[in-house]
Predict the structure.
Amino acid sequence: MQVHPRSEDSLGVEIQVARQCLVVLTRVEPADDLRQRLVVQPCLEVVALAHVRDDRPQALGDLGLVDLAQRAVPLLLALGDRPLLGDVHEDIPEFLGLLVHRNHTWSPVDKNLFVVSIQCTFCRVRGTTILSARHFPAVTHVDDDPRAALDAITEYPVFLAHNANVDALCHVDESVESVLNPPGEAWPESIDSPEALATAITQTMARGDGDLLATTAEFDAWLAERLAPDEQRLGGQAAIMADLVSLLDGDPILWTYLLSDTQRAQFTHPESIRFPVVDGDSLSFVPLSEAPTTDQTKRNWIFEFSAGDRLFETTATADTRFIAATRPDRFNLETGLDPVVEQLGANVECALVSGYQSLKRVYDDGSTFDEHVERGAEFLRDLAAEGVTIQLEYGVTHKRDLRRALIEHVLPEIDAVGMDSRELELLCEDLQYAGGGPGPDIVSQYRTLKDLLARLGVDCIKVHTTDYFLAVMDADAYLDPEYVAEGWAMAAVVAASKATEGVIDEPSDLESGLDVDFSPPGVASLSQLGSYLGVDDPGPDLVATHDGVAVAAHANRVVDDPVSTVGLGDSIAVSNFLLENALSDSDF
C-alpha cells in the first residue's frame, strides 16, 4: 500500500488514511494534553506513525502517546461523540497482541517502521484536533483478492426460505410475439390471457425495470402447450441463493414448500445443501439429494429482453425481465419448524427469507394471507431470539394489502431488508413518503433510506441498482459498515461472474468477475454521495458515518452484454448478507 504522509507541526505526528487501515507509531515530542480526556469523532480511518528502535517499538510512555495507544483497541467499537476514559496502559506487547488478535498482520517493514493493521477514528482534545487526516482512495479486500472472503464464508451456516421453482426462460423475440395478442393499455391484475402477458411485458420493457405478476394455472398450461422455453433453470429466490452458497463452499440450509424430482434436478450440488426434517420435537438435517419430494413442480415463466429488443411496437430500454409466476396453494409461509426453532437457531448464524410475494389473498381452506403473515412473523421473532441475524428480500408484489401486512408484521421482527429500486418505489408509495427530495439519484436514495430506517423499525435497509449498491444502517445496532461494504464488493464480483458466464460452478469462477470494470455511472454516483457526506473521491467503495447513521456503498461491475440477468438480484443479496455476517463472526 502506498504511503501518503502528512505532517502535523504541533505534535510532529504524521498521518495517513486508507481503506485497509494501518496504525504505525513514530517519535513525537511528549504531549501532556494527550493524557486529558479524549473525545471520539466519527470519521475516516487514521494511520499514525511511531518510531521503532531495534525492531521493537519504543515504550509509548516515552513517546507521549500512552492515552492514544491505550484507546486504539476500544476505538474499534466506539463510534460517536462521547468521552473515553481509562487508566494509562503502557504494556506494548499486550497492546500489539490485541491488535494482532483483532486484525490480521503486523510486521517490521524496515528498521524504523512497525506496521499494525487496525481500524480507528481520529481524536480531539477539548475540541482541538490532535490527529487529522485526509482520505486516499483504496480498494477493499474483496476487490483486491477475494480468497480471504471465500475463506470466511467456507462452511458458514445460513438458513434460506421459502421459495423454489423451475424457471422457464424465454428471450423476447418473434416466437414469443407469435403466441400473444397485441397489448392493452391498462396494467393487468394478473396474467390470465395472451393480451395480459403482452401488456405486462411491453410496459416492463418500456419502463426498464424488472417486474412480476401472478399467472393462473389455466394460462400456465395454455402457454406451456404453445411456447417452448429456450431453457429451464433453477428459480426462486431461496433456491438460487442456496445453490450459490453451496457453490461458494458455504453451508446453506434450505427450506421450501414443494421439492419435486424435477425441481431438485435443477440444483448444481444438492448433496451440499442441507434440508431440515422435523420428527416430533426433534430437528435433523439431510442432504437435499435425500430430502422427501412431492409430485407438484412450481413453474415461473421468465421473459428476458435486452436493450433495443422489440415486442409489437415497444422497444426495451434496458436489459431486464418480466416474470409470470404461478401461485400454488401450498405457498403459505407454514414451514412446520416452529416447534424446533431453538434447535434451528443453534445450527445457523444468519437467515435470509424471501418469497412473500408468492402469498395468495385467500387459500383453498379459507385462510387468508394476513393469518399466514402473522404466524410467519412469530416464527421470525422466535428465530431472532436465538441470536440469528435476519434479512428479508422484499420482492415485487402489486398487492398493496400484502405489502402493508409485511410492513406491519414482518419488518419489525427482522434486522435488515433488501430490495431493488422498483421495490423501494413501492415501499415509499405504501408509506405515503414522497421521497428523498431533489439531487442525484443516489443522494435522494440515501435520504430516503435514512428517513425510512426509523419508520420501519429495522436496523439496515439495502438497495441494489444496476450501477451501484447502497446500505444505510443504524450505526449502533447493525453490523460494522466495513463488513457490509466488503459484502457489497463480493456481490459485485459474483454478479459480474454470473453475467459473464451465465452460471458459477465453483469459487474459482469468480476470477471472471474481477476482470469486469466498475460501472462508470456507479463510480460517479458514489462520488456524488461522497460529496454530500463530506468524503472526497471515494472511488468504487464508500463507508461513512453521517447524521447518526452508517453508510456502505459500492459500485457494481457491469457486463455490457450479459449472458443472463436472471437471479442476479438474488445473487447480490445473498453474497452481501453472507459475507458481512461471516466477517462479523470471524474478525476478518
Notes: The longest strand covers residues 165-171.
